[in-house]
Amino acid sequence: MTSRRIVLSQSAALLGAASTGLLLPEVAQAQPGKVRVGLMLPYTGTFAQLGVAIENGFRMAINEQGGKLGGREIEFFKVDDESDPSKGVENASKLVQRDKVDVIVGTVHSGVQMGIQKVARDTGVLSLIPNAGAHAATRSLCAPNVFRTSFTNSQPTRALGKAMVDKGHKRAVWITWKYAAGEEAFEGFKESYTAAGGTIIKELGLPFPNVEFQALLTEIASLKPDAVACFFAGGGAAKFIRDYAAAGLKGKIPLYGSGFLTEGVLDAAGAAADGIITTMHYSDSLDTPRNKAFRLAYAKTYRMQPDVYAMQGYDTGLLLAQGAAAVKGDLSSKVALYKALESATIDSPRGKWTMSKAHNPVQDIYLRVVENKENKVLGIAAKALADSGAGCKLG
Ligand code: PHB
Q1: Which of 91, 101, 189, 235 lies at a CB distance of 3.0 to 4.6 Å from 36, suitable for a disulfide?
Q2: Contact criterion met (CB below 8 Å) for 225 and 171
Q3: What does the DSSP 8-state code read for residue 225?
Q4: Where, residue-wise, is CATH 3.40.50.2300 in the chain?
Q5: 208 lines ligand 1 (CB under 6 A)
Q6: Ligand 1 atom closest to 260 (CA)
């Protein structure tokens, strides 16, 4: 609130000066002083926990740098995007036009991301994507001012198909929410599973964020596939895991997924999650000093365990800090800023990663299994996996 008032009173002062004929800076431009960081994340709905984890991780990374970016204090502006794509453009515009943010950190949902992408392309505001995997953001609609610290939707599942066939599961059913993230996750699964010799006998889906899984689980039981693969996340994922077990499928038809299925939900899902095998660019149990230090610091700060979302938020903070340091806090030095972000190596809890030309992480994908409420690493399913970046003309 205070910040809004300060901005308004500054504008009023400038307008007053205008009438006296003084040469003025553009009122619309952010004032020097604090770096204005916009957080556009879901704080309600099925992805609420994901938004909170991303913010926590982001703040932790910034606090580790002394709470500043390139030597400047920070002011935060927050919007709950509700994972509602119909409000994506409006919410992102509010941050840019009303709050004059220097950077938008967001979001989780691929549909909402397309709203941010439009605003980022139209206004040139720096956009850092801490989760949403929408292909277009780093493919056909890629932009010099848009950087992703997470994954593309098909990246984790491109490592899943072979792992399933290696276990002898050659006939699979795919199930997901029918929206960009689920459909693009399917793209990766289909490519990897069929290339390894598997056959997808049925694709099942329901609209986001519905959780009425019963009829679909009955259909799976009657199809009798060797295995089921899926994309679900957040609250819906916890319910899917529980319903799968309650329907009597657990232990009969092995459940696989893009690793989001088992992120941040293991307490809620309990024993129903044991044995689920997934592929993901992170695992709780990565046995490295970097990951252990991150997990300990996060647990101490927030009194809960970090997950992939917390880690992605953290890496977004690390990336922005590196960029801001390279331009000594002057985020309006765009050429130098983008160059620094493009060439950054992020020393992440997931392992070191770099940016592809299209501004998406090149990273290892781990094979994991749930054991005692933890995602245990079984191995690396794909080394330094890059998204195709198809249609992106950067670099
Ligand atoms: C997405 O909508 O892109 C999305 C949402 C949640 C996830 C992963 C991807 O866990």
Answers
A1: 101
A2: yes
A3: -
A4: 10-151+287-355, 155-280+366-385
A5: no
A6: 10
Q: Residue 227 pairs with which residues in a beta bridge?
A: 172
Show pLDDT as tens, one digit a residue, over the chain (395 residues): 334 433 333 333 333 333 333 444 433 344 469 999 999 999 999 999 999 999 999 999 999 999 999 999 999 999 999 999 999 999 999 999 999 999 999 999 999 999 999 999 999 999 999 999 999 999 999 999 999 999 999 999 999 999 999 999 999 999 999 999 999 999 999 999 999 999 999 999 999 999 999 999 999 999 999 999 999 999 999 999 999 999 999 999 999 999 999 999 999 999 999 999 999 999 999 999 999 999 999 999 999 999 999 999 999 999 999 999 999 999 999 999 999 999 999 999 999 999 999 999 999 999 999 999 999 999 999 999 999 999 999 97
156 pocket-lining for ligand 1 (C-beta < 6 Å): no
Domain 10-151+287-355 falls in which CATH fold?
Rossmann fold (3.40.50)
141 alpha-carbon distance from chain centroid:
17
Over the range 57-83, which residues count as b (16 or more CB within 10 Å of their CB) and which as e? bbbbbbeebeebbbebebbbbbbbbbb
Ligand 1 centroid distance, CA of 219 (Å): 25
Give the distance (Å) from ligand 1 centre to CA of residue 153.
7
Q: Is the CB of 56 under 6 A from ligand 1?
A: no
Q: Which of 46, 52, 110, 179 to probe ligand 1 with, by most ligand atoms within 8 A of CB?
A: 110
Q: Say how far apart CA 245 and CA 380 lie, in whole Å.
A: 28
Q: Which atom of ligand 1 is nearest to the CA of 185?
A: 9
- CATH number, domain 155-280+366-385, options 3.40.50.2300, 3.40.190.10, 3.30.465.10, 3.60.20.30: 3.40.50.2300
pTM over 0.90: yes
For ligand 1, is residue 43 a contact (CB within 6 Å)?
no
CB atoms within 10 A of CB 209: 17
At 3, which helix (H) or strand (E)?
A: helix 2-19
